[in-house]
Design brief:
Elements: H1 6-18, H2 24-32, E1 39-41, E2 50-51, H3 52-61, E3 66-70, H4 84-93, E4 96-100, E5 104-113, E6 120-129, H5 139-160, H6 162-165, H7 168-177, H8 191-212, H9 220-245, H10 247-252
Parallel strand pairs: 1-6
Antiparallel strand pairs: 1-2, 3-4, 4-5, 5-6
Helix pairs in contact: 1-2, 5-8, 5-9, 7-8, 8-9
Length: 253
Amino acid sequence: MVTLPRSARLAAWGTAWLRNEAGLDDVVDRVRADDEPHDAVDVPGAATATGLSEALQALRGAGATAFLVALPAPGDPTGLGGPADLNGYAVDAGEVVIADGAPYALVPDVRTFGPPGDQGHLVTWMVRSAQPAPPGPSLSDADKELTAALLAAGSTLTDLDVPSWRPEVEALLGDIRANRESDPLPRAFPQQAQAVAARAARLLAVVRFALGDDGGAVTATEASSRRAALQPLERASRSALATACNALAVRQG
């Protein structure tokens, strides 16, 4: 099963909790998954590090009414409203949760430990000052953009034949064709958001496999051309995934 980014899980389940659609323990468990217990630092009103549940309660006390995820990348600060230092942290992490109604954001600092094949993760959420997130696309528009990007990159993915050198991709592609759900969003989310999140998460995984390994590329020019063809799909997948995970906040906001 494809796992959503930690910030996507936190935004989706945290918003459900703020809407009384999920319990706080459920949020913490969903976000933590197989990690060690998550910590948080620079939490409003706290002099020392706290647990994730205490951080969420503090942000609710500061006025948060929803949480929004952004999945930025170098050169693509989509979903970020500033200030510049927060944008830098978020781009470096590739993800951030922005509180709606409170001037704060949470950026995960993830440390991997242990030998290959038996690794764990230590996660600390850094609370940072934040400006409101800019409006994003509608869920329908994000889904259409994802479909268009997939069609445009389809021949490149086919020619690249990623499953031949990354066997795990074959299962992802099968799940996409069958419209199977991935790491589920809370039940309060509309069904379209569930479907878009599942498709976007799997496509993002496939494209990142392809971008992270040139596989059978014969020349540097060919590898560069493939990356240029796949990067729009990577951007569209990130945008659609964030939009789907923000659907409850936008729908009820």
